[in-house]
TrEMBL record:
<feature type="region of interest" description="Disordered">
    <location>
        <begin position="240"/>
        <end position="262"/>
    </location>
</feature>
<dbReference type="InterPro" id="IPR029464">
    <property type="entry name" value="HSDR_N"/>
</dbReference>
<dbReference type="Pfam" id="PF13588">
    <property type="entry name" value="HSDR_N_2"/>
</dbReference>
<dbReference type="InterPro" id="IPR017035">
    <property type="entry name" value="UCP035009_HsdR_All3000-type"/>
</dbReference>
<feature type="compositionally biased region" description="Basic and acidic residues">
    <location>
        <begin position="249"/>
        <end position="262"/>
    </location>
</feature>
<protein>
    <recommendedName>
        <fullName>Type I restriction enzyme R protein N-terminal domain-containing protein</fullName>
    </recommendedName>
</protein>
<feature type="domain" description="Type I restriction enzyme R protein N-terminal">
    <location>
        <begin position="25"/>
        <end position="121"/>
    </location>
</feature>
Amino acid sequence: MEQFTQQLNALANRFEKIRENILTEEATKTSLILPFIQVLGYDVFNPQELVPEYIADVGIKKGEKIDYAIMQGNDPIILIEAKSINEKLEKHDSQLYRYFGTTKAKFAILTNGMEYKLFTDLDEPNKMDDKPFFTFNLLDLKDSQYYEISKFRKSDFNIENVLNSASELKFTNAIKILLSREWEDPSDEIVKHILNDVYPGVKTKKVIDSFRDIVKKSMSQFITEKVNEKLQKALKSTASGEQLVQSEHSNEENGSKEIDNKDQVITTEEEIEGYVLIKLILKEFIDPTRIYYRDNKSYFNVLLDDSIRKWVCRLGFNSTNKYIQLNDEKKTFLKIDSVNDIMNYRAEIVSVARQFDNTSTLSST
């Protein structure tokens, strides 16, 4: 699964670089869609696995063709209708709808190379649903989506297994869309529902409008606090919080060690957020289980293999002058204003981590 995730991420990175050069539907097929099918494990040059221009007769119309059919034996199992990367997909649903009922395929994919919409027949047998049960964008993949996409790999594909999860996915995605909309702009109904337990007065339109921003802010703070709480518990359970740490840069560089009083070291939410950001930055290149942290009084270390000799960077968040220090040749200090500024130095962080990832002579401590 980890290898598959890395392949999808590599594909997305490649797409970003060439996207502006893809101007036609044919270029979209060749540069975007066929590579995605290859990542799923299918041989795009083998007509026993992938048939381009698959003939799907529709009613009295003969010779109707669909762009691709992924085959299993002599029957198509997945139909793929391709559009140009510059086209939106909504208006094309009816075209794929016509093809669906003429074959034995139980799944249909509508795609422009970046966005993928997956359909089946949950509402009525052998009739493609009006709405997809699963939608994803290769340039904005969520963690949960990698697993769902993996079910369509040649090695894992099982019609019954996918159908069993399709119904749940359909409603899960619909609920996520609803929650996302309410998150951005809470509706009158949501605001009123919340006020029922916290505001004793009459919930007039004016009252609801006056509380809308408060409700939005409260929801945001609640989610942030819950996420940080879970992150701290999870990270502290895997990190070596009670291991020996070195209190000063000079002592550490000279090889001497001084034990910080662990009772005086306080790991803040801001430091945990920074650690998580760095872990996300590096996950495409390095197994996340190899990335640790050690918190000192003066700074917060992020390192590989729990080895102080392999520290990637240090976060200085204990004063108003925040910084990130890289473990490159110059031990570069970079001033930052907020945790999110770490993302501005993504390439530099990856470069340092790769340097230590490739150094086999360094020993763990």
